[in-house]
Amino acid sequence: MVGVSLEGEKVILVPYMKEHVPKYHQWMQDPFLLETTASEPLTLEQEYQMHLSWCQDPLKKTFIVLDKDLVEGTFVHGDPHVEAMVGDVNIYMNDLDNLELAEVEIMIAEPKSRGKGLAKDAVLMMMAYAVENFGIHVFRAKIGESNGASLRLFQKLGFEDISYSEIFKEVTLELPVENAKREELLVLTANVVRHP
Ligand SMILES: CC(C)(COP(=O)(O)OP(=O)(O)OC[C@H]1O[C@@H](n2cnc3c(N)ncnc32)[C@H](O)[C@@H]1OP(=O)(O)O)[C@@H](O)C(=O)NCCC(=O)NCCS
């Protein structure tokens, strides 16, 4: 069964399907992407296993980000549209004492699709989806101190620094989503179309 797809102005968020795995695996050979996402290189077989575990874990939600400019023909829900996949966005409810808190991660892996506002749109859409469907009240992001692009992205979305780890050289930022902020998020994503 295919999950929902969310169509925004610039991106379409589609469920992570097995057809996406080879390209995802290819991206994750890049030392820059491994470092900025704090990931370890995996074999293709391990990446398929990781895909399964992400899809089955009720505490995680992952979407593949499609760049609408790259979709060939019309978008078809359920079609992986590998030609247009440029990154991923995910949330992880990894604080078992607070399941209303989700860590959010974004990657726009294809350089040609960066700087077009895709990450901003994808994170906003993911947050609105998480507020509505998972009852999330606080979003958290952990970013390497040298990752200026990502730090600015989250700061621009209203996240504030709450702590710094000297050991991991990493900043933790949070965005509480209560009342006014929740309304603002829902207004910003009001035109998002849900498929089906
Ligand atoms: C960080 C990243 C997600 C940004 O994606 P993007 O689609 O290019 O970002 P957007 O075009 O949506 O930019 C949104 C805002 O982010 C900031 N930003 C993005 N790229 C930037 C850069 N290279 N330098 C400075 N600020 C940048 C800006 O504030 C920008 O807003 P503005 O254009 O109005 O000034 C992308 O570069 C990436 O995937 N990097 C590698 C993986 C990574 O670092 N992931 C984050 C770990 S959670």
Structure description:
The chain has a single domain, classed as Aminopeptidase (3-Layer(aba) Sandwich). Helix content is 32%, strand content 28%. The chain has helices at residues 21-27, 31-36, 44-56, 118-134, 148-156, 179-188; strands at residues 5-7, 11-15, 60-67, 85-92, 101-108, 138-144, 160-165, 170-176, 193-195. The protein has a nine-stranded mixed β-sheet with strand order 7-8-6-5-4-3-2-1-9, with helices on both faces. The longest helix has 17 residues, at 118-134. Residues 11-178 form the N-acetyltransferase domain.
What binds here, in terms of ligands, is: coenzyme A
CATH topology, anyone? Aminopeptidase
Distance between the termini: 12 Å
Helix count equals 6
What's the helical proportion of residues? 25-40%
User: What's the count of strands?
Assistant: 9
Strand content: 25-35%
Low-confidence segments, given as residue ranges, are: none
Estimate the global geometry from the Cα principal axes. globular
Protein name: N-acetyltransferase domain-containing protein
Organism: Citrus clementina
Keywords: Acyltransferase, Transferase
GO molecular function, one term: N-acetyltransferase activity
Which helices and strands appear, and what pairs or packs with what?
Blueprint (H helix, E strand, L loop, with lengths): L4 E3 L3 E5 L5 H7 L3 H6 L7 H13 L3 E8 L17 E8 L8 E8 L9 H17 L3 E7 L3 H9 L3 E6 L4 E7 L2 H10 L4 E3 L1
Parallel strand pairs: 5-6
Antiparallel strand pairs: 1-2, 1-9, 2-3, 3-4, 4-5, 6-8, 7-8
The chain binds coenzyme A (COA).
